[in-house]
Structure formats: structure tokens, C-alpha cells
Amino acid sequence: MNPKSAQTSSDSGLTTSDIDLTPEPPPRKPPMKGIYVLPNLFTLAALFGGFYSIVMAMNGIFDQAAIGVFCAMVLDSLDGRVARMTNTQSAFGEQMDSLADMVSFGAAPALISYEWALKGLGRWGWIAAFVYCACAALRLARFNVNTAIVDKRYFQGLPSPAAAALVMGFIWWAIEMSYVGPSLSWWVFAFCLYAGLTMVTNVPFYSFKDFQMKKSVPFTAIVLIALIIAIININPPTVLFALFVIYGTSGYGVYIWRKYKGEQTSLISTSTEEPDEEGLH
């Protein structure tokens, strides 16, 4: 041994036995993040509803195409509630839900409307279908970044499932009344533009998010729900279409009432600056 190093070790009071020569264990790999199955099953089912609708429209079965969109709407309303009730929310689930919504409530209604009625209008037909589809994409993107800064009781603009139900409800009702698509092409044109543009407005639409499934309700509420289900079953196309016409115009009623009362009519600033996205996902 080098005398100098021995001298240094003896001066510091350390011996060879005091030095830990065992190698450090390799760093552990972070655990892989899994995906919650239950809420994503509902999301995938909603996505299938939109895909099924497109396939039915390609085969000329437009009433089944409209029903597929309504089924997707019901499933889409359940996945978020299931995730909250089971504490299985995730960023993956949020992104998956948005992509499924774009197919089921953006692309599917636009393509079905075009195939059923708008094709005969030439360029005006595909312009109306594209405006609806583009507005659905813009509405979903805005919803994702504004989640933390919008009043939870209201949607900012017509939600995409309701917009799809408005357009598909009209087509389903018209088929039930034995109308053919080309005879109502301009009506479908108007519904597509109205639903699409209303999605990207700041008009407030009630969200029903303050309705808690875990809270107890009076017995009469259950009776009322049963009565609503019975009324819908009398003539589903007509009743559902009427309900979504009422909801699709209710936001403008709220807007006019707030304007009359001197209250703030917009739920959020219309500034083009990006909001702080921390905690939004």
C-alpha cells in the first residue's frame, strides 16, 4: 500500500472495513400505468354506436343509423358517471372519450345527413355537412381546454351529443313519417348549420351535472321518470325529436333571459389567449 494513502486513512480514522464496497442495486423501473377497463368499455361501446351508424348509412338503412347515434349518446352519458362513481378517472379516458365523441357525434351525423338528404344539393350539401363536422371538432377541443374555467352547471354552446340528437332526431322522425331525404334536403341543411354553429357559440345550455345519482330523491321523482319512459315509448322518434328541439333552443332562451336581467350572458371570456392548462386533465 502506498504509505501516503495509508497515512491519510489512519489520519481520518477510517479503515478498509469501514468502507462499504457492495455495489448499488440497479434503479427500479417505474411501475407501468394501466388502463381502467369499466369506463373505457362504455366509451368503446359509444364509439361502436357511431361506427355502426356510418355502416348503416352506407347500406341505406338510415333509421338504424339514427338509432345507433342515440345509443352512442346514452353510452357516452354513462362513461363519465361510471368513472366518477368508481373513482377510475384518467387522462387516457378523457382523451378516448373525446375521440369517440368526434366519431359518434361529429363525423357520423355529418355523413348520415349527407347520404340521406344533402347529396342532391351538390356543393351546398357537403359544405353543410363539413360545417357541422368541423364545428363538432372545434367544440370538443374547446371543451377540453376550458373544463376548469366554465360554470359546471352549464355547457358553453350546444353539447355535441345533443347537436347530433337534434339532426338525427329530425331524420329519424322524417323516415317514420315516410318522407324521403331529397324532399327535405334544405331542412336538413338548416338543421346541420343550426346545430353546428350553435355548438361553437357561448350560449349557455344546462348540463344536468348537478344531478347526483347517489342522493336520495322523493318517491314522486321515480314515478315521473317512469312516466317519461312510457311517453317516449309511445312514439320514440317524435318524442325524442321534440325533446331535443326544446333543449336545442333552450340555451337561447337562457341567453335572452340573462340579457334582460342584466346578468353576464357568456360563461367564459371570449379572449383568444390560451387558458392555464394545469390540472385540466
Instruction: Identify the CATH architecture.
Output: Up-down Bundle
What name goes with the CATH superfamily?
A: CDP-alcohol phosphotransferase transmembrane (TM) domain
Structural class: mainly alpha
User: What portion of residues is helical?
Assistant: 55-70%
Spans with pLDDT under 50 lasting ≥5 residues? 6-10, 269-281
Gyration radius, in Å: 28 Å
Instruction: Kindly report the CATH topology.
Output: Four Helix Bundle (Hemerythrin (Met), subunit A)
| Major sheet: arrangement of strands | 1-2
How many discrete domains? 1
H and E order: HHHHHEHHEHH
> How many alpha or pi helices?
9
Biggest sheet record: 2 strands, antiparallel
Oligomeric organization of the protein chains: single chain
Classify the beta-strand content into a percent band: under 5%
Mean pLDDT: 83
- End-to-end Cα distance, whole Å, is 62 Å
Spell out the key features of this protein.
globular, single chain, mainly alpha, two-stranded antiparallel sheet, 281 residues, 9 helices, Four Helix Bundle (Hemerythrin (Met), subunit A), disordered C terminus
Q: What's this model, at a glance?
A:
The protein has 281 residues and is mainly alpha-helical. The protein contains 9 helices and 2 strands, in the order αααααβααβαα. It has one domain (37-261): Up-down Bundle (Four Helix Bundle (Hemerythrin (Met), subunit A)), CATH 1.20.120.1760.
